[in-house]
């Protein structure tokens, strides 16, 4: 019998039609899009551009929907050469999401969510954000001709992201507190229902875009031993895992990778739950990596499930390890990442020390955002600056290097 695509509740398993505009189930839980029967296979996509919509058979937006896109996705999978020899690894590669149109992986989810916002005839989109989702949403809202409204925490948003919000002319609402307070406001708002579309990762369509990271990894590399992902709310690691699971179910791969979740130690409720078996939010999350400064991740249950089902692990890294990895990946490999993304390298090192990952295994680090998002962090680094008054001075200095 033909199996249609559907929206299914994570808790009570209630099923809704795929075109239902709701974000959460009536019981308050998250909804998952389940892919039904599909004629997807690798030969269908051959010849299409490397971007999110290459996989359109697995992104079940209604056929009538007009796609809002800027060619997002198709990001490079970059071989690490010096890093591998320093870490004595078989093969670390970086999936560089900083090369998306607004500089983060969020564009993958927003191309799909903004397509649905138009389909539902919404007049605006709204999101609570530590900055990247807000920037991405604002860009895609403008592309779709909709008004962007962002809720940001008073605890701070990186300067590059704030600049993007100004550039796109987003309406910015600042709530006092951190991301968790901003998120709570959006969840309350979602209960009202309006023509302002909520596009936080509780929106199931966001996940459908972000899962394409997995499809690309399979095409670019095959199935690695480990995929290493920074975890804030947990939506992205869940999306990537969902992508691998779907391809497994279609019989196009024969295993899924182990997922390594990395949290900043000062904001690590999922790590604590992983170790102790008891989940409790962090009331005052702290870390230099503001993108993942989240004390009560909405997807925490899903992340623990991903870790269990993929035989993965959770590790925590402190700010000094994050900064060391930030500089290391830039200076050994030329890659400029956000600090939240450099947690993946710091986390992999920790997992090697703890013998969670074996040196003979390979790993893909999902570098979620671009270094230019956080100019204030880069500004704080030492400057190797020599001032010269004449060409002779310059020649003399260079000859001594
Ligand atoms: N990396 C970057 C660069 C991010 O911006 C985020 C989340 C994450 C990792 C974590 O992803 O939440 O799916 O586990 N940023 C959100 C935002 C919270 O509002 O931009 P997650």
Could you explain the architecture of this structure?
The protein is α/β, with parallel strands linked by helices and 401 residues long. The protein has a domain of 201 residues: Rossmann fold (3-Layer(aba) Sandwich), CATH 3.40.50. Helix content is 38%, strand content 15%. Strand 10, helix 9 and strand 11 form a beta-alpha-beta unit. Helix 8 crosses helix 9. The longest helix has 15 residues. The relative contact order is 0.13. The site of ligand F0G has 22 residues, from helix 4, helix 9 and helix 13. Ligand F0G binds next to helix 4, helix 9 and helix 13.
Brief digest:
With 401 residues, the chain is an alpha/beta fold. It is built from 15 helices and 13 strands. The relative contact order is 0.13.
């Amino acid at each position: 019998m033909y199996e249609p695509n559907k929206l299914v509740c994570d808790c009570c398993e209630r099923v809704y039609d795929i075109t239902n505009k709701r974000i959460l189930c009536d019981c308050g839980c998250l909804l998952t899009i389940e892919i039904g029967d599909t004629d997807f296979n690798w030969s269908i996509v051959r010849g299409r551009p490397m971007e999110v919509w290459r996989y359109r058979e697995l992104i079940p937006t209604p056929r009538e929907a007009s796609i809002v896109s800027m060619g997002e996705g198709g990001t490079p999978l970059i071989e690490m050469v010096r890093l591998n020899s320093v870490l004595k690894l078989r093969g670390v590669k970086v999936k560089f999401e900083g090369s998306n149109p607004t500089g983060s992986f969020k564009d993958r989810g927003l191309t799909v969510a903004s397509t649905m916002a138009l389909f539902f005839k919404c007049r605006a989109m709204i999101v609570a954000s530590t900055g990247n989702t807000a920037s991405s949403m604002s860009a895609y809202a403008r592309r779709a001709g909709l008004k962007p409204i962002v809720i940001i925490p008073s605890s701070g948003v990186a300067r590059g992201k704030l600049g993007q919000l100004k550039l796109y002319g987003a309406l910015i609402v600042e709530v006092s507190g951190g991301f968790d307070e901003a998120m709570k406001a959006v969840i309350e708002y979602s209960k009202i229902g309006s023509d302002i579309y909520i596009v936080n990762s509780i929106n199931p369509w966001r996940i459908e875009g972000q899962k394409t990271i997995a499809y690309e990894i399979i095409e670019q590399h095959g199935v690695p031993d480990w995929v290493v992902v920074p975890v804030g709310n947990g939506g992205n690691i869940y999306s990537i895992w969902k992508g691998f699971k779907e391809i497994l179910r279609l019989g196009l791969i024969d295993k899924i990778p182990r997922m390594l979740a990395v949290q900043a130690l000062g904001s690590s409720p999922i790590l604590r739950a992983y170790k102790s078996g008891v989940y409790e939010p962090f009331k005052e999350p702290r870390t230099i990596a503001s993108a993942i400064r989240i004390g009560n991740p909405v997807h925490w249950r899903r992340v623990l499930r991903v870790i269990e089902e993929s035989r993965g692990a959770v590790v925590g890294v402190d700010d000094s390890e994050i900064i060391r990895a930030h500089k290391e990946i830039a200076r050994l490999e030329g890659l400029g990442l956000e600090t939240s993304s450099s947690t993946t390298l710091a986390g992999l090192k920790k997992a090697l020390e703890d013998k969670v990952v074996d040196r003979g295994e390979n790993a893909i680090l999902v570098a979620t955002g671009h270094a230019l998002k956080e100019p204030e962090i880069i500004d704080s680094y030492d400057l190797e600056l020599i001032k010269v008054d004449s060409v002779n001075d310059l020649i003399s200095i260079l000859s001594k290097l």
